[in-house]
Amino acid sequence: MSVVEESVEVQVPVTTAYNQWTQFEDFPQFMEGVERIEQRTPTLTHWVTSIGGAKREFDAEITEQIPDERVAWTTVEGEARQAGVVTFHRLDDTRTKVMLQLEHDPQGIAETVGDKLGFVRRQAKGDLKRFKQYIESRGFESGAWRGQV
């Protein structure tokens, strides 16, 4: 397993950042390579990705979700194997630090080489930067799911 840790500060309150992150079907708006996500149940999402010419489909289960604090997941079915957590840290009334920790298991030679060259880390960093631009340009979340898992 390979581990990636990245973070970004966003100029929105913690509730806004968290609420937007719970809108999984909006991820293609800021996550490069994510073509589509379907929220199948409150704790199950289906992902379709295309990264570096490799198309993947997989299901991810939300294993922990605490409003304004964290969302954790693990893949349960499909070609990709990963687990991760995103945590939200209130810096003040208008700023939040979003931290991503991702464990993934590169499949095949191309993914292993790409991982060693830092491709996944750069992708995660870019996705967080695009999330920052997305939520700050909106100023408010597109929806929210405040349930706890």
Automatic annotation (TrEMBL):
Coenzyme Q-binding protein COQ10 START domain: residues covered: 10-130
Family annotation (CDD domains): SRPBCC_8 (cd07817)
Pfam family, any one: Polyketide_cyc
SUPFAM superfamilies hit by this protein: Bet v1-like
InterPro entries tied to this protein: COQ10_START (IPR005031), ORF3 (IPR047137), START-like_dom_sf (IPR023393)
Name listed for the protein in its UniProt record: Uncharacterized 17.2 kDa protein in melC2-rnhH intergenic region
Biological source species: Actinacidiphila cocklensis
